[in-house]
Amino acid sequence: MIARRSMLFLALLLAASTLLLARTAAGQEEASATNPPPAASARVQHEDDEAARAEGERRFHANCGRCHQAPHKFPPRMMATIVRHMRVRATITDEDMKLILRYMTQ
Amino acid sequence: MLHLSLGSWRRNLPSLAGMLALLAAPVVHAQSQDQDSEPIRPVPIFSAGLAYNTFIQGGTAHLHPLVSPVILIPLGQNWLIESRDTFEIDLAPEPGSSGYKGSLQKEVDYLQVDYIANRHVTVTVGRFLTPFGIFNERLYPVWIRDLQSDPLILPIAMGPSGAQTGAMLRGGFDATRKIEVNYATYFSTLSTINRLDSDRAIGTRAGIFLPGPRLEFGGSFQHLLQDDHSNAFGIHFAWQPPPVPLDIRAEYARSHTGSGYWIESAYRLSQAPVWQNALRHVQVVGRMQQFFNGTVADDALPGINTNLFEFGLNYYFRDDIRFVSSYGRQFAFEGNENVWNLGLTYRLALPMWPGGGK
């Protein structure tokens, strides 16, 4: 009886492990599908950075320009404080804050 | 239903441990990635707005130096302590004397603790600027405002000194990809402490911002919980049309102490086809305002119906230092008069922590 239960448990473990491996493999396939070769990956990363920079710049002018002239860039750690201050003072959104901080610290 | 004996658990323990390790691996990997992208650590900042203005109103000159230090202390990822004080002197000629005299005025504009609770809500406790309209909270500093004189309706619903002491919830969030919503709602308590005075009141302000056309509009409301339990309300509007360096802003406010509006337009000549090197630093400003007396007198507001037209010219040496000038004509029943202004404004910001400037 015990041997039968153990066999059943091991079978379930095997099935679970198989499912897990299948999931991991699928994840790797997805990753390899979404992660092109190194050169293409670098290009995609660069395009993403450019898009984030452009969006950050747009949001910087849209939000900061609502009240004052565009200031020059401050050092990153100062900029992190200023953007937090502006989040409270000018009620800018969380996403605006992150994109503006990224743009202003690049 | 499956029942396993203790012996079978023991025998299969290594397999179970292996499975758990496999399941946990992606989580551990993700956490290590999060740790790699550590956010920038904010640093305490000392900032200040400085101005030296000369106003000539009705033929009387007033010299007006002002310093407004701001301290920002971030704590962790979600906290911010911030304060702003104002020190100013209004020097005016003394009758029978050739000199100018005035006393130093000191004010705690705000001293508040902010806790960013989540993406939508920030909790503020302490003394904060009254969130009514847009001028008091966002346009008031001398280095920001396009014209150095206050709008006539500014004192409406502001409390004794433009600030209240209590608690506030505020925030901004994306309603859709093209619409952002911002809000502030507060409760303030009665305080008669010198320089920390406050009314017992509740109030709220809400606005909608369209990032595409850069258009913002909203409304404010305040209900006093003391004295005559009066109400005040206001609406505000701001627009920066993206293709041109033009700012259009307006506010309307109404309470039992009076009502009125201001509308301001500021144009930066950065797109001028000629003399661009010089003209791109120049900003032309115009503002029109009207004030109508209410049923209850307020010393901070004009005593009679007043119209004021102002024209200003600002020159930005840099984004933080500028020369300001304006001419205005005030029309009121008791007499019309000219209002002139010449001045300099400056804003500085310094880190208060070693390594903060890197």
Helix-strand layout with pairing:
The complex is a heterodimer of chains A (106) and B (358).
Chain A (H helix, E strand, L loop, with lengths): L1 H33 L3 H27 L11 H14 L4 H11 L2
Helix pairs in contact in A: 2-4, 3-4
Chain B lengths: L5 H31 L8 E13 L2 E16 L3 E11 L2 E2 L6 E2 L2 E13 L5 E8 L5 H5 L23 E14 L2 E10 L12 E10 L4 E10 L6 E9 L6 E10 L2 E11 L7 H4 L2 E12 L12 E11 L4 E12 L4 E15 L7
Can you characterise this structure?
The complex is a heterodimer of chains A (106) and B (358). Chain A is built from 4 helices and no strands. Chain A is an all-alpha fold and 106 residues long. The N and C termini of chain A lie far apart (67 Å). Chain A has helices at 2-34, 38-64, 76-89, 94-104. The model of chain A is unreliable at 17-34 (pLDDT under 50). In chain A, 80% of the residues lie in helices and 0% in strands. Chain B has 358 residues and is mainly beta. Helices cover 11% and strands 53% of the residues of chain B. Chain B has 3 helices and 18 strands. In chain B, the strands form 2 sheets. A 16-stranded antiparallel barrel of chain B has the order 1-2-3-6-7-8-9-10-11-12-13-14-15-16-17-18. In chain B, strands 4-5 form a two-stranded antiparallel ribbon. The longest helix of chain B has 31 residues, at 6-36. Mean pLDDT of chain B is 88; it is low at 1-36. Classes of the chains: A mainly alpha (106), B mainly beta (358). Chains A and B meet through α1, α2, α3 and α4 of A and α1, α2, β8 and β9 of B.
